[in-house]
Specification:
4 helices, globular, Transcription Regulator spoIIAA, alpha/beta, five-stranded mixed beta sheet
C-alpha cells in the first residue's frame, strides 16, 4: 500500500487508499480505521479507486470495523471502480455487507440523505 490520506467533507470522513492492500499492509490499514473509531467518526467512506488488490486479511479488517461502526450507529461505505476488487466483494458476498459506489460523489451524497 502506497498511502492512506484522510479528508473531511461536511461530517463525513473519507479515507483514500492508494496501492494494493497486501497482507503486510493490514496492520497499518487497521490502525487508520481504529483512529477513526477513537475519534467517534460515524460516517466513513473508504475510497478504493486506486486499489487493484485487497488481501483477505484487509477484508477481515473491513468487516470487523463495519460491525463496530454499525454498533455505534454509523456506517462505512466503499468506492470501488476496479473490476477485480468489485468481483472479490461480490464473490465473498461483501457487497451485501457494504454499500458500494462507483464514484466518491455518489458515496458522499448517500450519506447526506441520512441524519445521524
Amino acid at each position: 500500500m502506497e498511502s492512506i490520506t484522510k479528508e473531511k467533507k461536511d461530517n463525513i470522513t473519507i479515507l483514500k487508499v492508494k496501492g494494493n492492500i497486501q497482507h503486510t499492509d493490514t496492520p497499518t490499514f487497521e490502525k487508520e480505521l481504529e483512529k477513526l473509531l477513537e475519534e467517534n467518526v460515524l460516517k466513513i467512506i473508504i475510497d478504493l479507486t486506486n486499489v487493484k488488490l485487497v488481501s483477505s486479511s484487509a477484508l477481515g479488517t473491513l468487516i470487523a470495523m463495519q460491525r463496530r461502526v454499525k454498533r455505534k450507529g454509523g456506517d462505512i461505505r466503499l468506492v470501488i471502480t476496479e473490476n477485480e476488487v468489485l468481483r472479490v466483494m461480490q464473490i465473498t458476498l461483501l457487497n451485501r455487507v457494504f454499500q458500494i459506489f462507483g464514484s466518491l460523489p455518489e458515496a458522499v451524497e448517500s450519506f447526506k440523505k441520512l441524519s445521524f
